[in-house]
UniProtKB/TrEMBL annotation, chain A:
Record family assignment: Belongs to the amidase family. GatA subfamily.
InterPro entries, per database record: Amidase (IPR000120), Amidase_CS (IPR020556), Amidase_dom (IPR023631), AS_sf (IPR036928), GatA (IPR004412)
Active-site residues from the entry: K76 (charge relay system), S151 (charge relay system), S175 (acyl-ester intermediate)
Function according to Swiss-Prot or TrEMBL: Allows the formation of correctly charged Gln-tRNA(Gln) through the transamidation of misacylated Glu-tRNA(Gln) in organisms which lack glutaminyl-tRNA synthetase. The reaction takes place in the presence of glutamine and ATP through an activated gamma-phospho-Glu-tRNA(Gln).
Protein name (database record): Glutamyl-tRNA(Gln) amidotransferase subunit A
Any GO MF annotation of the entry: ATP binding
UniProtKB/TrEMBL annotation, chain B:
Gene label: gatC
Organism whose genome encodes this protein: Propionivibrio dicarboxylicus
Entry's Gene Ontology molecular function annotations: asparaginyl-tRNA synthase (glutamine-hydrolyzing) activity; ATP binding; glutaminyl-tRNA synthase (glutamine-hydrolyzing) activity; transferase activity
Protein name, UniProt field: Aspartyl/glutamyl-tRNA(Asn/Gln) amidotransferase subunit C
Keyword Ubl conjugation among record annotations: no
PANTHER family: GLUTAMYL-TRNA(GLN) AMIDOTRANSFERASE SUBUNIT C, MITOCHONDRIAL
Described function: Allows the formation of correctly charged Asn-tRNA(Asn) or Gln-tRNA(Gln) through the transamidation of misacylated Asp-tRNA(Asn) or Glu-tRNA(Gln) in organisms which lack either or both of asparaginyl-tRNA or glutaminyl-tRNA synthetases. The reaction takes place in the presence of glutamine and ATP through an activated phospho-Asp-tRNA(Asn) or phospho-Glu-tRNA(Gln).
UniProt xrefs under Pfam families: GatC
Quaternary context: Heterotrimer of A, B and C subunits.
Keywords: ATP-binding, Ligase, Nucleotide-binding, Protein biosynthesis, Transferase
TrEMBL record, chain C:
Keyword field contains Protein biosynthesis: yes
Entry keyword set: ATP-binding, Ligase, Nucleotide-binding, Protein biosynthesis, Transferase
Protein name: Aspartyl/glutamyl-tRNA(Asn/Gln) amidotransferase subunit B
Highest taxon above the source species: Bacteria
NCBIfam families referenced in this protein's UniProt entry, alphabetically: gatB, PRK05477.1-2, PRK05477.1-4, PRK05477.1-5
Gene3D superfamilies in UniProt: 1.10.10.410, GatB domain, N-terminal subdomain
PANTHER family: GLUTAMYL-TRNA GLN AMIDOTRANSFERASE SUBUNIT B MITOCHONDRIAL AND PROKARYOTIC PET112-RELATED, GLUTAMYL-TRNA(GLN) AMIDOTRANSFERASE SUBUNIT B, MITOCHONDRIAL
Membrane spanning residue stretches: none
Entry GO MF terms: asparaginyl-tRNA synthase (glutamine-hydrolyzing) activity; ATP binding; glutaminyl-tRNA synthase (glutamine-hydrolyzing) activity; transferase activity
E.C. numbers: 6.3.5.-
SMART domains per UniProt: GatB_Yqey
Organism, as annotated: Propionivibrio dicarboxylicus
InterPro entries xref list: Asn/Gln-tRNA_amidoTrfase_suB/E, Asn/Gln-tRNA_Trfase_suB/E_cat, Asn/Gln_amidotransferase, Asn/Gln_tRNA_amidoTrase-B-like, GatB, GatB_C_1, GatB_Yqey_C_2, Gln-tRNA_amidoTrfase_suB_CS
Domain Asn/Gln amidotransferase: from-to ranges: 332-482
Length: 484, 95, 485
């Protein structure tokens, strides 16, 4: 049962082959057994999950089902869910039980999905290895000495370890695509504005975007169908008619123009990883696609631009954590300012504090133009590069990450090395484009991710491109050993 | 560019983050490494390029002027550190 | 002894009269229990987002049109970052580089009557922003209590150029602005409740000096009287400081009404560095020209235009026209009264509204909107004076009767109480003959040259007619009779 696709699980539920309660219990049992080691979940509340499952079973019995009714899903702990502890991976919110639902949670609840638990993540989504979580690092199910990626490392490890059939995640600089790549999963970061940010705890508001993480493109499409849609509570939510992300899945790839940015294929990427990428591209040629070289000349600048813009927004977004209305408050303090300073110093971890300091600095008097405005101008250059490239191609391909999963502890003390690991994913967020990562090989037993980048609103096309590849290959069906 | 210890303290103060002298020193080293990475951006000529603040070039949507909320104080204050008589309590504010 | 010039600029925070908050659907009603009107967005719970209230933007457009400023086709919301317990997000959403209204002006009148002069105060800008909550300092075991009901209430911050040169000008400006925002229906102007709060930037410089002196900002002036007192105190304090050789430091000060003094606020440990940047949660506010045109069509005639029309069409003095355009309610009442009394009676209508009605309202502590005597009733009354149906004296009785609700109209009361003026010459002559016969002594005194006696005889005659005779007519007939007798 745990190897079945969402579609097949839905059929099993509809056909009364299994009940939602039974399916949910199966996963809860696996979580109880495997999570203490993997650490994919921060919070599990079996009675809540089972109550939802029971309600889903009643809906199924009444014939009121959607594609996701009764399906248990892991939720990244960045999404506020009413009555659920919602920590965002931080001590600051260790005791925060959300009094409201994020739009994504509300939509999935309405569809009848079951919340299996809240998954581990880098603190406030700031990190590329899930090692900045207050609740401890997540272990990569493929090699438990290695990182699961970040910031959605818990969601990735949960799905890879079969502790959930699929999960929600968010991506500000690669946080869906990179852990998906490192854990051998399929993940999609939609066009900015497609999935509501309401109730999704903000890291960098102009870059954050929620999306699905699953074992296949088809599962991602099903999940995105339920997650996406206009939300009047989010001013940056796009007012477009709901898309059907399954509509183009089977479309043949003949004539597809794949853009290969020379900047993705130069130095900086592990040779064995690159070989897997090349092999995937060769497979696409077999499927009828053509390739064309394109250029993203400002790609390298995405790291500095991102590490100005994201911390700037974050420094302001995280000012609300002041110990006044909710969350952590330091036990001892002399006066108001001391309470703020101690609460925030004790409640935030090192990486979060680092980014708050960077952001505060680049916005402060005398530095704004040189850093913040310059970064925003470079952001436009990067977006324009993509615009130019998409005149020549339908989809851009390249590696998601320069290497496979690295060892726990390997980069955590060197922020610069950690930041550079995101070189291939940051530009997509700066431009606001949709991007995916699809498993395309194993190097020394560790998964490699192929990154697909599409033009604005081309999610259905990206899913189609990924799906056809997954019909021709079986990388997405590989699973880590030792999970039983 | 290189941040001084004093600047690190000042930024930490602006951000309301208590920082010890020892921490400030480590932080300074790390921030300077990061800013070296960031400085790569300064060499680029961006004259005439409009800063991009949003991923989409759209305008603000407006909400009708309607009251849609009801009192949920109890639920909201259930997660508060210190509350009395419906008020959030903080150390004395001195103006 | 040096001569000093005072330079004042004013920033006003006007709470906009919307039903809901600027970025959330919470109510803005005043006086609720603490924190019951603070929803997830107002409390800045993790993950919440702002959505802009159309009503608040509409108010800003109305203001821009009223002061003849430019309603910006594109304006941007920015975050002003600072920590304060009544500021839940740790930043205030405001407008910085691109405000919704640019420029504009307001004309103020200084002095009264013939000495009145007008002065134009230029506005720099007006921008939309959210209000903060309130910190209550009553003793909660030595702590402060935070009420966030007000957090997120829409404000229009209106900023002038440093155009004012005295506390009197500053107060005249604040009064004119206060009248205007109520006139165009964007702010209730309730200063006690904090709906209209002014900050005054005050500096002094030697007369003739071009550059400005260092300014100090007096925060939160919530009455015109305090504004005058605070500025006067501040000006003499600054002059004294400079004359004693101390330089003025830029500072934020508070006015203490109990002592009549201003005092510097506890200086923050860090100098303000608000780190403004465009709010990534809000997109640029675009106001198309159609919207501006529609709003313009929906605006009431503005006080300045109305005032000019009152002078031109009704022949009122500038002073009267100013008084009658002090508020939309007064102007509306006056115009409605004239509509009934007739344009020819516009002047007496003005007097009745400004003098008799105003005094009566004042006595009962009522405002004109709740006057027991309607504009139509007052117009009907003035019409009867104009056509000599009743005298001014009788009119006052009729007015009181209308006030007391003794009739639906002046006509009804005149009829019912038999107050119609006696104009029949024969009848009046007959009465005068009786008066002369009964007061021979007075007649004799008059003839002996005592003019006072004449007035006494008029009084007797009026008394005999129960005040219903036309006094002028009585006067003329009496003189004729005395001359002939």
């Amino acid at each position: 049962m745990i190897e079945r696709s969402l579609k097949s699980l839905a059929a099993a539920l509809a056909g009364k082959e299994i009940s939602s309660v039974e399916l949910t219990q199966t996963y809860l049992d696996r979580i109880a057994r495997l999570n203490p080691d993997i650490n994919a979940y921060i919070t599990v509340a079996p009675e809540k999950s089972l109550a939802q499952a029971k309600a889903a079973d009643a809906r199924i019995a009444a014939g009121q089902t959607t594609a996701l009714t009764g399906i248990p899903l892991a939720q990244k702990d960045i999404f506020c869910a009413q009555g659920w502890r919602t920590t965002c991976g931080s001590k600051m919110l260790d005791n925060f039980v959300s009094p409201y639902d994020a739009t994504v949670i509300e939509r999935l609840n309405t569809a009848g999905a079951v919340i299996l638990g809240k998954t581990n993540m880098d603190e406030f989504a700031m990190g590329s290895s899930n090692e900045t979580s207050y609740f401890g690092a997540v272990k990569n199910p493929w090699d438990r000495d290695r990182v699961s990626g970040g910031s959605s490392g818990g969601s990735a490890a949960a799905v890879a370890a079969r502790l959930a059939p699929a999960a929600t995640a968010t991506d500000t600089g690669g946080s869906i695509r990179q852990p998906a790549a490192l854990c051998g999963l399929t993940g999609l970061k939609p066009t900015y504005g497609v999935v509501s940010r309401y109730g999704m705890i903000a890291y960098a508001s102009s870059l954050d975007q929620g999306g699905p993480m699953a074992r296949s493109a088809e599962d991602c499409a099903l999940l995105l169908d339920a997650m996406a849609g206009f939300d009047p509570r989010d001013s940056t939510s796009l007012e477009r008619p709901a898309d059907d992300y399954l509509r183009d899945l089977e479309r043949p790839l003949a004539g597809l123009r794949i853009g290969l940015p020379k900047e993705f294929f130069g130095e900086g990427c592990d040779a064995a990883v690159m070989a897997s990428i090349e092999a995937a591209i060769a497979e696409y040629r077999k499927l009828g696609a053509e390739t064309v070289e394109v250029s993203l000349p400002n790609m390298k600048l995405s790291v500095p631009a991102y590490y100005v813009i994201a911390p700037a927004e974050a420094s302001s977004n995280l000012s609300r954590y002041d110990g006044v209305r909710y969350g952590y408050r330091a036990p001892e303090y002399a006066d108001l300012n001391d309470m703020y300073a101690k609460t925030r110093a004790q409640g935030f971890g090192d990486e979060v504090k680092r980014r708050i300091l960077i952001g505060t600095y680049v916005l402060s008097h005398g530095y704004y133009d040189a850093y913040y405005l310059q970064a925003q101008r470079i952001r436009r250059l990067i977006a324009d590069d993509f615009r130019t490239a998409f005149k020549q191609c339908d989809v851009i391909m390249g590696p998601t990450s320069p290497t496979t999963a690295f060892k726990l502890g390997e980069k955590i003390d060197d922020p610069v090395q950690m930041y550079l690991f995101d070189i291939f994913t940051l530009g997509v967020n700066l431009a606001g484009l949709p991007g995916m990562s699809v498993p395309c090989g194993l190097v020394d037993g560790l998964p490699v991710g192929l990154q697909l980048i599409g033009d604005y609103f081309s999610e259905a096309r990206l899913l189609n491109v990924a799906h056809r590849y997954q019909q021709a290959t079986d990388w997405h069906l590989r699973r880590p050993a030792g999970l039983d | 560019m290189s941040l001084s210890l004093e600047q690190v303290h000042r930024v930490a103060q602006l951000a309301r983050l208590e920082i010890s002298d020892a921490e400030a020193e480590t932080t300074r080293t790390q921030l300077n490494a990061i800013f070296t990475l960031i400085e790569a951006m300064q060499a680029v000529d961006t004259k005439g390029i409009e800063p991009m603040a949003h991923a989409q070039d759209l305008s603000q949507r407006l909400r009708p002027d309607e009251v849609t909320e009801t009192d949920r104080r109890g639920a909201f204050q259930a997660v508060s550190p210190e509350v009395e008589a419906g008020l959030f309590l903080v150390p004395k504010v001195i103006e | 002894m040096k001569q000093w010039e005072v330079v004042i600029g004013i920033e006003t925070h006007a709470q906009l009269q919307t039903r809901s908050k600027i970025f959330s659907g919470s109510s803005t009603a005043f006086g609720a229990e603490p924190n019951v009107q603070a929803n997830a967005v107002d409390l800045a719970l993790p993950g919440v987002l702002p959505v802009l209230n159309r009503g608040a933007v509409e108010c800003a457009i109305r203001f821009g049109l009223a002061v003849e400023g430019e309603v910006a086709p594109k304006s941007v919301f920015a975050r002003k970052n600072y920590f304060y317990p009544d500021l839940p997000k740790g930043y205030q959403i405001s407008q910085y580089e691109l405000p919704v209204v640019v420029g504009g002006k307001l004309t103020i009148t200084l002095g009264e009557g013939d000495a009145a002069v007008e002065k134009t105060i230029n506005l720099t800008r007006a921008h939309l922003e959210e209000d903060a909550g309130k910190s209550l300092h009553e003793d909660f075991h030595g702590k402060s209590g935070i009420d966030l009901n007000r957090a997120g209430t829409p404000l229009l911050e209106i900023v002038t150029e440093p155009d004012m040169r005295s506390s009197a000008e500053a107060v005249a400006y604040a009064r004119a602005l206060h009248a205007l925002v109520r006139w165009i229906g964007i702010c209730d102007g309730n200063m006690q409740e904090g709906s209209f709060r002014c900050d005054a930037n005050v500096s002094v410089r030697p007369v003739g000096q071009q550059e400005f002196g260092t300014r100090r900002e007096i925060k939160n002036l919530n009455s015109f009287r305090f504004m005058q007192q605070a500025i006067d105190y501040e000006v003499s304090w600054q002059i004294n400081e400079i004359e004693e050789g101390r330089a003025i430091q830029q500072a934020t000060v508070l006015f203490d009404p109990d002592t009549g003094e201003t005092r510097s606020m506890r200086t923050k440990e860090d100098a303000h560095d608000y780190r403004y940047f465009p709010d990534p949660d809000l997109l640029p506010l675009m106001i198309d020209r159609d919207w501006v045109a529609r709003t313009r069509a929906d605006m009431p005639e503005l006080p300045t235009a109305k005032k000019q029309r009152f002078v031109a069409d009704f022949g009122l003095s500038a002073y009267d026209a100013t008084t009658l355009t002090a508020s939309l309610d007064i102007a509306g009442y006056y115009e409605a009264a004239v509509a009934v009394a007739g344009k020819g009676a516009a002047k007496p209508c003005a007097n009745w509204v400004m003098v008799d009605l105003a005094a009566r309202l004042n006595k009962d502590g009522l405002d004109i909107a709740s006057s027991p005597v309607s504009a139509a009733q007052l117009g009907g009354l003035v019409a009867r004076i104009a056509d000599n149906t009743i005298s001014n004296n009788i009119a006052k009785k009729v007015f009181e009767a209308l006030w007391a609700g003794e009739g639906q109209s002046a006509d009804e009361i005149i009829e019912k109480q038999g107050l119609k003026q006696i104009t029949d010459t024969g009848a009046i002559e007959k009465l005068i003959d009786e008066v002369l016969a009964a007061n021979a002594a007075m007649v004799a005194e008059f003839k002996a040259g005592k003019e006072k006696a004449f007035n006494a005889l008029v009084g007797q005659a009026m008394k005999a007619t129960k005040g219903k005779a036309n006094p002028q007519q009585v006067n003329e007939l009496l003189r004729k009779k005395l001359a002939g007798a």
